[in-house]
């Protein structure tokens, strides 16, 4: 799943950074465009949350075939959008910047790992574990900030990281194996977000997805050839409805991304931070209530610890946001007196 987000499109104006990664985000209610932004964000994350059901409906296609068609039809959909919106000049301008093009290639490799792992989990009865990956993604992002950006964490953030590590250990011991799907999803998307931040606001959502899928096109073609030789492609052999669903994989990939981009420009990051949990919550409900995946006590305990870590992180974010607003207000009052 491509979650979760196209960080290059996030409006960073509501956020200030106060030394050592102490991020203070404004949580003031947005005025203009808030309703449309909220609807776009909720729609994007609900679509991402329901993706397991879509991929399961693609059976008997396997994960490699599904991801290959997802890449190719996403590229076709993006090409149509670029032509319809006449934004090819912007894309050609990006293509002249070698560093950005190479960076998008790395982003494409990371999102490929994310997509392939997610679809594999959805098609192999591991939707609950996939949801775990997106539950712990915010905590992994905090960890990556320390590792790559040398950010200093507040005590509550460290507590959330420690609790999440304990949760993974509990899940690993209880299940008898490390939850690799969850960890790969969390770290691949966390690194994807970090790489996309390197290009800042230079790449919009459609151009970014276009470049990533262009890089991945040879991989997709190779996968389709391999599947065709070894087991046979399912597209066109199961029925018209199945073929249309495979073609629609490109649309279902691009539309939530565009909705997210629209929401990110209209809502404060704090709002987006809360709404991002819609996707893993829906995935978890789908896995437990719809697909009836097993939830033994040790798994509930592990998820409970993850949710505790997220609660700590959320409360800390709200406290930091409140302090940030107060500090900003005090600064405005001082500047007014001067």
TrEMBL record:
Reading the lineage from the top rank, the first entry is Bacteria
Query: InterPro entries recorded for this chain?
Result: EamA_dom (IPR000620), EmrE-like (IPR037185), RarD (IPR004626)
**Tagged with keyword Protein biosynthesis:** no
The answer to whether UniProt assigns keyword Cell division to this entry is no
Could you list this entry's UniProt keywords, alphabetically sorted: Cell membrane, Membrane, Transmembrane, Transmembrane helix, Transport
Q: Where is this region: Disordered?
A: 1-25
Q: Where in the cell is it found?
A: Cell membrane
Q: Which residues form the EamA domain?
A: 36-171
SUPFAM superfamilies xref list: Multidrug resistance efflux transporter EmrE
Pfam families assigned to the protein according to its UniProt record, in alphabetical order: EamA
Where does the UniProt entry say this protein principally localizes? membrane
Q: What GO cellular component entries does it have?
A: plasma membrane
Membrane topology field:
Multi-pass membrane protein
The transmembrane segments are 38-61, 67-88, 100-120, 132-149, 156-173, 179-195, 215-235, 241-262, 274-294, 300-319
* Similarity comment: Belongs to the EamA transporter family.
- Name used for this protein in its record: Chloramphenicol-sensitive protein RarD
Organism per entry: Plantibacter flavus
Show the taxonomic lineage.
Bacteria, Bacillati, Actinomycetota, Actinomycetes, Micrococcales
């Amino acid at each position: 799943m491509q979650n979760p987000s196209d960080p290059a499109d996030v409006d960073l104006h509501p956020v200030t950074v106060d030394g050592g990664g102490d991020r203070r985000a404004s949580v003031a209610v947005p005025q203009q465009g808030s309703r449309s932004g909220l609807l776009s964000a909720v729609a994007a994350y609900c679509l991402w949350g329901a993706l397991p059901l879509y991929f399961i409906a693609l059976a008997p296609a396997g994960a490699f075939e599904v991801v290959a068609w997802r890449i190719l039809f996403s590229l076709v959909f993006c090409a149509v959008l670029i032509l319809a919106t006449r934004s090819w000049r912007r894309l050609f301008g990006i293509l002249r910047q070698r560093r950005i093009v190479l960076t998008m290639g790395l982003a494409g490799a990371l999102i490929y790992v994310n997509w392939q792992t997610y679809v594999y989990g959805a098609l192999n009865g591991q939707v609950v574990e996939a949801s775990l990956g997106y539950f712990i993604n915010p905590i992994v992002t905090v960890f990556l900030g320390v590792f790559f950006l040398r950010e200093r964490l507040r005590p509550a953030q460290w507590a959330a990281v420690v609790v999440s590590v304990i949760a993974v250990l509990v899940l690993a011991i209880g299940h008898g194996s490390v939850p690799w799907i969850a960890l790969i999803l969390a770290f691949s998307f966390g690194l994807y977000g970090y790489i996309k931040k390197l290009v800042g606001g230079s790449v919009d959502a459609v151009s970014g997805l276009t470049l990533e899928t262009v890089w991945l096109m040879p991989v997709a073609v190779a996968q389709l050839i391999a599947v065709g030789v070894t087991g046979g492609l399912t597209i066109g052999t199961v029925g018209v409805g199945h073929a249309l669903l495979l073609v629609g994989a490109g649309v279902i990939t691009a539309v939530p991304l565009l909705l997210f981009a629209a929401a990110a420009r209209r809502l404060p990051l704090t709002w987006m931070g809360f709404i991002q949990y819609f996707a893993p919550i829906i995935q978890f409900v789908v896995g437990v209530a719809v697909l009836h995946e097993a939830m033994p006590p040790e798994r509930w305990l592990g998820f409970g610890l993850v949710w505790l870590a997220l609660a700590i992180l959320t409360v800390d974010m709200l406290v930091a946001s409140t302090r940030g607003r107060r500090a900003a207000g005090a600064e405005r009052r001082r500047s007014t007196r001067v």
